[in-house]
Amino acid sequence: MSDSVFLVLVVLVFLGLAALWVAALVHRHRSAHPRVRRGADGVERWVVDGGLRLVGGDAPGVSRRWRHGRVVAEPGVLTLRPYLMGLKIVPGTRVSVAVQGVDLTAEVEAGLKDMAGVRPGSRIIPVATTTGATLQLALLSSRTDGFFAALAARPAPAA
Predict the structure, then answer these.
(1) Euclidean distance between CA atoms 159 and 157, whole angstroms
(2) Using one digit for the tens of pLDDT, what is the confidence trace for 16-63?
(3) Which numeric CATH code is attached to 36-152?
């Protein structure tokens, strides 16, 4: 009888480790690949995991500390849906910022000195808002051409 209990425990541990491995693969895939969603109005919304913080000026809802979550890019608007306590299943209050411009030439890679706020190797991109504030956007993904194209696209003027 003790052999069957031991066998059941071994199988349960094996299944738990396999589930953990699959969850890690899914997390790695989702954080490295931006997702594109179309809204009801036909506008492309790019979604990628990242972080946002305030560097200079004033932007409501954005602090000088890194806030991590899902970053959504729409034409002229950057929205952060932060994770509470680092858990993706517990979303925080959304923060939307009207974007004036993104300076991709001033992009830097996060190093060891930034390790307390973002992962080393993340891309840190300065973002200017319409209120005059300067933000930093940290992205893990390297495939963000469409993300910035969607952010830079302006809606057509109303006739």
Answers:
(1) 6
(2) 998 888 887 776 666 556 677 777 777 778 888 888 999 988 888 888
(3) 2.30.29
How far, CA to CA in Å, does 5 sit from each of 1, 8, 101? 7, 5, 63
Whether 117 contacts 126, CB under 8 Å = no
Give start and end residues of each alpha helix (H) in the chain. Answer: 2-32, 145-152
pTM for this predicted structure: 0.70
Please report, for residues 56, 132, 135, 153, the alpha-carbon distance to residue 129 in angstroms, rounded to integers and kept in the order given.
10, 5, 8, 15
**Token pair 């034409």 in the structure block, residue:** 75
Break the chain down into helix, strand, coil percent, rounded to 5.
30, 40, 35
> Within 13 Å of residue 121, how many CA atoms lie on the same side as its CB?
4
What is the residue extent of each domain of the chain? Answer: 1-32, 36-152
Run of H or E residues at 48? strand 44-56
Q: Which two tokens stand for residue 122?
A: 């993340």
